[in-house]
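## retry 2 of 3
previous attempt timed out at serialization; input unchanged, resubmitting
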Amino acid sequence: MQRLVFYFTLPWVLIAVAVGSAAAQVPVIDRANHTIAKQTAETTERILDTNKNILAAVEDTLKAVSGDRADVAGPLQDLAIGQGFSVSAMPPLDGVLTGGTLDLGAGNGEVARAATRFINSLQLVRSLSGQTGSDLPGDRSYEELIRSVASVSALTHGAQAATVLRRSAFESAGRTVGEAADIKGSIDQNTQLQVQSGLTLNEMIGVMNGAVTSLQAQNQRRLTDISNSRKALSYGD
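## retry succeeded, writing output
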């Protein structure tokens, strides 16, 4: 009976050994580590996406604060003296009248014609002595006074016409401010408006200088009259 038991037991042992060997070759999945690895991969992917978004935002910011915006600020550069009358284009006072013709420089032709019509309407004599090309102090003073009157007349007419044009230009520019696509465009627009405001202020200073020049001519005329009076009285002595 013992021999029979031995032969029946041996196959089961062999089968058990074979099954154990086969089970040892099957891979084992660590579910905890797999979960952590999956979470790490997802987190890394989100970090990469965030970095891409940050890079895109930095590039957009760089574009918004750098580069040329001439197409945005360029239309504003002629608000002050780009059209119409300009005091800075006028020649010096002694060059306003050349051969009896009023010359106010390039771009001021209509203003010169208006001032010439005003001077001609006064029907002034060419000189107090009646002499042509006289060097008498009275004649020279009178000629300077005519230049002053012509210049102030041109300044007044030109400034009035330019005021209308500049008001329209600044109102039109005001409607476009804020339409720039980015901050650099808005800054350039604001800078150009400041420049144009400065040029406009400079034009006003030029007009005031013309007024001061007219006072100087008036004082010069008074001095000449005083001097001539003194000379006339000295002849009687």
